Amino acid sequence: MAKTTSTRQPRAARDRLWMTELLRAFVKNPDQPVTTQVVETVCELIAQGILQPGDRLPSLTQMSERYGVDTYSIQLAYQQLQKLGVSTARSRSGSFVGSADAVHMRVGGIRLSHAILACRKMEMDKKSITALFREQIERHFPDAKEKRRSADNGERKTTAQ
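Now predict its structure.
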């Protein structure tokens, strides 16, 4: 019986790759808490596909030594990742990247938050930001406008009866 080859890299090679990326991506920012930086870095690596559901996160000690921060800060970051559904903890095994759906929702939320903050820095008001987001959603989902119109018409018909 012939072995089937997987397109995924062996676990050890993938671990080395994403750990290298994690080291590159994490740059201490004095304006942001370390915990937030770790959470956002892990989420970004997930968004890029470098970290995938089921991948093991480094131990608290490994992370604190690599980044030169205390283990408590890393522990808080890991707890926050768990609360967000981005990771899961397994007793005596460590922390692992969680389910794809939870991860993608959280990462998407972080990216939207960054976009909103960028708009706020440009002194855009809530109405302008909302209009901008609506315009972009309609651009990327052209059928969404049609569906919304159909739904609105359907609601009007049922209320009129």
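The chain has two domains: 11-102, 126-161.
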